Amino acid sequence: MMVLLGELQDGMCDAVIREAPLHVFTELFMTPMLRLSNDPVKNVFAGLVHDLVLPFLASWRQPCAALAAGGHHTCVVTKDRELVCFGHNDFGQCTVPASLGPVLAVAAGAEHTCALSADGKVVCFGNNEFGQCDVPADLRPVVAVAAGGSHTCALQRNGVLVCFGHNGLGQCDVPLDIDPVVAVSAGGAHTCAVTAAGKLVAFGDNDRGQVDVPPELGPVAAVAAGSHHTCAITAVGELVCFGGNVLGQCDVPPNLGPVRAVAARLLYTCVVTITGELVCFGCIDFEEIHQPPGLHAVVAVAAGTCHACAAKETGEVVCFGHNDLGQCAVPTGLLVATAGSLRRGD
Hints:
The chain is mainly β. The chain contains 2 helices and 25 strands. A hairpin with a 4-residue loop joins strand 9 (112-117) and strand 10. InterPro entries: RCC1/BLIP-II (IPR009091), Reg_chr_condens (IPR000408), Ub_ligase/GEF_domain (IPR051210).
């Protein structure tokens, strides 16, 4: 969901998935849509409908509304629509504006945070050196937001993707001929979007091949942009990663099986399998990102620079890795929201 000098934020969203055709949802990322509801909650957590048949996801409920890990901070949307952030706060990336109000989703960049409010507006705070927090005044109602190293992307309800902030490598240059977008992820200095047809489009920094989408990839259900690599979940649940692979962040385990969520960061990748297992690979030893034992029933994952966070079916948030700035110090009793609780407002 994840983004630093390649930080990318990946928050996963709540979803109820039924038998074919199935609707796939991811955070940071949300996933594909062909039609939109007037209900902003449905648009964020069940909107962007993509008619991909995913038999491996026959039936499960993912109770995570929004979970995001930035450079050295973490943000969570609670069941009462409150945004809570903790960790590094030198740039105010954890100082949630008092006037923010109810929140549906959150994206955490390297040193900035963006929240999607219940009325479809985007509010960003933290480091604004490159204008990554300067939300365009003419932005239409938004259904998804992604935060990169120093840039931000907002997906409007009409399928138009708008990116702003640092654009030194073209990470904000949305292709003019791109079809309506249904999902977006922002990496260190590149951006990835999924169209309504399931096509993955990537643009921006390509120093490691992170925007060279494999021609044989096929329809995509979700995407995560890391610092210098990209990972996509295909329509059949297969994980495909490409780009920088110096420490194995693109070496998908051979027996991984279908996955339902993915998060990418500087030098590692984490996924949630359809059985609720969390699997991380890449530079996890060097970064000391060792997941605690007994971590099961996971529905969402977010990757920070040197820390990762997982949301369990119960709503519990578990963070692990470096905690030198409090990025893993989850407040006692904190529970991540579900789509159901957001609709009810309880």
